[in-house]
Design goal:
With 310 residues, this protein is of the alpha+beta class. It has helices at residues 9-34, 100-123, 126-153, 282-308; strands spanning 37-42, 47-50, 54-63, 67-75, 80-83, 89-99, 158-169, 176-177, 185-193, 196-205, 212-219, 222-225, 229-231, 238-246, 249-257, 265-277. Strands 7-16-10-14-13 form a 5-stranded antiparallel beta sheet, with no helix packed on it. The protein has a 5-stranded antiparallel beta sheet with strand order 8-9-15-11-12, with no helix packed on it. A 4-stranded antiparallel beta sheet has the order 1-6-3-4. The protein is rod-shaped, with a radius of gyration of 31 Å. Keywords: Membrane, Transmembrane, Transmembrane helix.
Length: 310
């Protein structure tokens, strides 16, 4: 006695579609769970960061004068992170783990396609089944592509960073001799700022002369003097320091002194930020959900039409 199982070509296509839908769902899950975002963000203004509903969010606040601190911001499904301005720091945000939003849409979408394909295979055959399988394949592909597109937008968000730093003794600089009884020598250093930049500088004075230091930023809106802080450690050199965000323009450091500065050093560090792209617009964020709702409605309509017409 033998049992013969016959499967039509459309029926086989339906089974393949079910397997393919589950496979694609697993692929989206693996891609999402292994995808880690790293964004570098200046803190010259309030920043609102879209976190893609990732489970684990980390934040490093990098103070250009003091170093960095890393903290875990949240463990859950946070959607956004709001950062307040900080005059001497920038932020490095990491988002890793599974996106609750994407995986919820992924699971429901896969279940809808599999259920619709299973019902169609059980109750339809021939040309009608072939049509249903074709439409369901297109819906499954659109669901997966919408989720992958949404996830990939996070790879191009944030800012690129260009760093520049140096240390130079004033003995290597050629001062301008002034006809002035108060200050006889003038040192002038200039740098160009492109876009948004965070500048940190310190001048360590080891000479007998106490200089006058002016740090001035120029841009299209005019000029502004950056305030300096003074540190006089026990047994150490007097240190003048400043850290500030600047916009496109020029930075000029004026150092005026009664005598030549042979043992004074300038330490300079600049981080320039160039925006790559903004956070995804609301339409892109909602795209996986919109595609899911459209797929569900299409499946219901498709099955009703094909089932009612015998």
């Amino acid at each position: 006695m033998s049992i013969e199982v016959k499967i039509s070509l459309p029926g086989l296509a339906g089974i393949i579609l079910i397997i393919a839908s589950i496979t694609v769902g697993i692929y989206v899950f693996q891609m999402d769970s292994s995808l880690t975002y790293t964004w570098i963000v200046p803190l010259n203004s309030v920043q609102v960061i879209h976190l893609y509903f990732k489970q684990n969010i980390g934040l490093a606040l990098v103070d250009v004068g003091k170093g960095s601190n890393y903290i875990t911001v949240s463990s859950g499904a946070a959607s956004t992170l709001t950062l307040l301005p900080a005059s001497s720091s920038y932020a490095v945000i990491t988002a890793r783990g599974v996106s609750i939003y994407v995986e919820t849409v992924n699971a429901i979408g896969t279940l809808i396609i599999v259920a619709a394909a299973w019902i169609a295979v059980r109750r339809r055959s021939g040309l009608k089944l072939a049509i249903i399988m074709t439409v369901l394949s297109m819906l499954a592909a659109s669901n997966a592509l919408a989720q992958i597109f949404y996830l990939n937008t996070g790879l191009g968000s944030g800012y690129s960073v260009n760093e520049r730093g140096f240390s130079i003794p004033f003995s290597q600089l050629e001062p301008v001799v002034l006809g002035n009884e108060t200050y006889r020598y003038s040192y002038v250093l200039r740098d160009t700022v492109n876009g948004v930049a965070l500048v940190n500088l310190s001048i360590q004075v080891r000479d007998q002369y106490i200089p006058l230091i002016i740090v001035r930023a120029y841009n299209n809106q005019g000029s502004i003097d950056i305030p300096l802080s003074t540190s006089i450690p026990s047994g150490g050199p007097i240190t003048y320091s400043a850290a500030s965000y600047l916009s496109s323009g020029n930075l000029t450091i004026y150092v005026l002194s009664m005598g030549q500065l042979e043992n004074t050093t300038l330490n300079y560090y600049k981080v320039e930020f160039q925006r790559i792209s903004d956070s995804p617009p609301i339409l892109v964020t909602l795209l996986p959900l919109i595609t899911l709702v459209a797929s569900f409605a299409s499946c219901i309509l498709l099955l009703r039409i094909t089932m009612l017409r015998q």
